[in-house]
Write a structure and sequence with these properties.
6-stranded antiparallel sheet, about 40% helix, alpha+beta, globular
């Protein structure tokens, strides 16, 4: 893991204030419990007191850049950023005047921190893949790009209301709000910045949100797709123009192993640039763009600069299912490009979900914990810099609730093709009326009523059967807020607590999305996916490897949000947009069927893994920590695991949420040590273990 951490304190010299030195060797730190200087473990100091900032973890030298205008005006950028030092300087001067959007408009994925006197500004991203957290501490505010270091700093206990909301309503921002699994540690919402002035904090948005009252001006589809192409090309180029990183030197041969096998066995990636090549449109687009940029990896031997470096394309072949045979064939056709070096990684039962329940502790829980070993098997054959297509579906596809947005804008005729596609998939003549009726109800339902309806459903345990097919999923999504797939297995008290959170949110004066239901649901889905990708990156981490998800970059997200809704709701819109992007970049030779969706692979794989791992999972829930926390009854979950393993149509996503949260809690409570020096062993998160506090519903709060 890598993060940055710092704090903004009260005036230097105040009680509990920072420890500073005036001898020119400024050192950030505070006095710990036993008089030691408090600082993060394994850190490098970027600037010192009274508002110090550290970079923690295995950052590459080019991933940490600090540009100073003077001793009190400076900017730190951590991550992959395509801006030059001069552009950083211009952005610094703009931020000094209060303009924050400049700091988020460079290509790449990064976190920017600006210090102007005693004012510190930390910018999060639009998707939520690089979040910012904060907590009150020592009369000021500590902040970080990871929640666990702050939880260690304040010895935070678990926030059981947040854990309940993660299971009951994971896609509903009103339930999660700004909370984290750690009590007292707060999250800055995506698209916002944390501004600290001598310890006092403020959350400010830097990107406009589509208004609920006024329709967005009509956008030209061709210009919008061109903007997506430019943003994607810039995002890929920002990664390729960064200095090449060579992993640790291979210590030598092993009998019977080639170089690639040695690297994989030792957990070392291949030097250079690589990409996933699943056969789908997102990964294929990134691989072809990265391989085709002039003078970049993918240059054929003897042509141009950097000659001979081919892009390593990695395809995962799941031997337990044949459902993706056509995608694999398309991946092989794409990999015939001489600019690509194709590697196929096969996986059998040992790479199914739930096959390996051991793993590292991540910053937060996430459903990807149950599939981390599967992804690690693929990434072990990848490069030091590896492109993934994660996020393309969330930024390009239309959430079903966008049909209500079209009705609100009086664009009924654009519903014809998506509804016709659903009718064809279902085969029922009643589909158009059902879909149109649900979209019309959502268009006429206020946000507050939608949240209150969900609160009532949770309170009365009103859960529908797992919706089958595209029509059922679309109808279930045509609401402001819906229960999570794991909600049906929570205790009544846990559901009641989440219901209280939702009711308080709905009745809070002046609180609402201020945007259309489809846009609101799409942003929430993107935030959840980006958060889970962040957890996956930590859980499946390969030493010296960097995963790159250009579709989650700020500029790509902005360009995709500018796409007209009438374009994105059409069937096959994502593949059509990416095909146009590639055509604009000069890539036209795509295999037949490119972009065709793969059906049922995820559910089939999850069920196979659940069936094979049923016994270890039942053992896991013999005495679960979730039951000790009052969120579930172990008997109920064991029954659900047995039923799902036998083939009953239960929501498998809900079981993944439950199992991953239980795994995360066990890893958290079994950890030793802390993220900080200068503190005794007790100064770490959740020092007392599972100790449920009196619930809001039972105490009348």
């Amino acid at each position: 893991m890598r993060w940055l951490v710092g704090w903004s304190s009260t005036a230097a010299g105040a009680p509990g204030g920072a420890v500073g030195h005036d001898d020119g060797d400024t050192y950030g730190g505070r006095i710990g419990h036993d008089g030691e200087t408090l600082q993060p473990v394994g850190s490098q100091l970027l600037w010192g007191d009274p508002d110090p900032l550290w970079a923690v973890g295995d950052w590459r030298p080019d991933e940490v850049r600090v540009v100073e205008a003077d001793a009190q005006t400076r900017i730190a950028v951590l991550g992959t950023c395509g801006a030059s030092d001069e552009q950083l300087r211009v952005g610094l001067f703009a931020a000094r005047g209060g303009a924050l959007r400049h700091l988020t408009a460079w290509p790449g994925s990064y976190t920017a921190v600006v210090q102007v006197g005693r004012r510190v500004t930390v910018c999060g991203d639009l998707a939520g893949a690089r979040p910012v957290f904060h907590t009150p501490w020592a009369g000021g505010t500590a902040y970080a790009t990871a929640a666990l270091p702050l939880a260690d700093l304040i010895e935070a206990n678990l926030d059981f209301a947040h854990l309940a909301a993660l299971l009951a309503a994971p896609d509903v921002p009103a339930a999660l709000h700004d909370s984290t699994p750690y009590d007292g540690v707060r999250r800055v919402p995506p698209g916002h910045a944390l501004i600290l002035r001598a310890g006092a904090r403020e959350i400010a948005g830097y990107d406009p949100v589509a208004s609920l009252a006024v329709a967005a001006p009509p956008a030209d589809p061709d210009s919008a797709v061109d903007a997506v192409r430019d943003a994607l090309v810039d995002a890929v180029r920002a990664r390729l123009s960064a200095p090449r990183h060579v992993p640790d030197i291979d210590p030598g041969p092993v009998p019977g192993m080639g170089p690639a096998e040695r690297r994989a066995a030792r957990g070392m990636p291949v030097p250079g640039i690589g990409a996933d090549l699943s056969g789908g449109p997102a990964s294929g687009t990134l691989a072809l763009l990265a391989a085709g940029l002039p003078g970049m990896p993918g240059t054929v031997l003897g042509h141009g600069t950097g000659a001979g470096e081919r892009l390593l394309a990695v395809t995962f072949n799941d031997l337990t299912t044949r459902a993706r045979a056509e995608e694999l064939q398309r991946a092989g056709t794409l990999a015939a490009n001489p600019r690509l070096h194709h590697v196929v990684v096969t996986g059998a039962e040992e790479t199914l979900p739930y096959a390996d329940l051991d793993g590292p502790l991540t910053d937060e829980p996430g459903p990807s914990l149950v599939t981390a070993a599967r992804h690690r098997a693929r990434l072990a054959a990848g490069s030091a810099d590896h492109f993934t297509g994660h996020g393309a579906r969330q930024v390009l596809d239309a959430h079903p609730a966008r049909l209500a947005d079209l009705l609100m804008d009086r664009k009924r005729r654009h519903l014809v093709r998506p509804v016709a596609a659903l009718t064809k998939a279902d085969g029922s003549v009643l589909v158009p009326a059902r879909v149109y009726g649900a979209a019309r109800r959502l268009a006429r339902t206020p946000y507050r009523a939608g949240v209150e309806n969900l609160a009532d459903r949770l309170l009365h345990r009103s859960f529908e059967d797992d919706p089958g097919g595209a029509v059922g999923a679309s109808l279930a999504a045509l609401t402001w807020a819906g229960p999570g797939p794991a909600a049906r297995w929570l205790t009544g008290e846990a559901l009641a607590e989440v219901s209280v959170l939702l009711q308080n949110s709905a009745h809070r004066a002046g609180v609402g999305p201020g945007q259309r239901p489809g846009d609101y649901r799409a942003r929430a889905a993107l935030t959840r996916h980006a958060a889970d990708l962040r957890i996956l990156e930590q859980a499946a981490e390969i030493r010296s490897q960097r995963l790159h998800a250009p579709f989650l970059d700020n500029q790509v997200v902005r360009a995709c949000r500018a796409l007209p809704e009438t374009l994105r709701v059409q069937p096959g819109a994502r593949a059509a947009i990416l095909r146009t992007v590639l055509k604009g970049a000069g890539i036209t030779d795509l295999p037949p069927g490119w972009g065709a969706p793969a059906h049922g692979t995820t559910a089939t794989t999850a069920r196979n893994g659940l069936r094979l791992a049923a016994d270890p999972l039942l053992t896991l829930f013999d005495a679960p920590l979730l039951a000790e926390a009052g969120l579930i009854e172990a008997r109920v979950v064991r029954k659900a695991v047995r039923a799902a393993a036998s083939g009953e149509p239960l929501p498998l996503d809900g079981l993944a949420d439950l199992i991953s949260l239980e795994l995360w809690l066990r890893r958290l409570l079994s950890r030793r040590g802390t993220c900080w020096t200068g503190t005794p062993a007790r100064a770490r998160a959740v020092p007392a273990g599972i100790a449920p506090q009196r619930r809001a519903v039972s105490s009348g709060g």
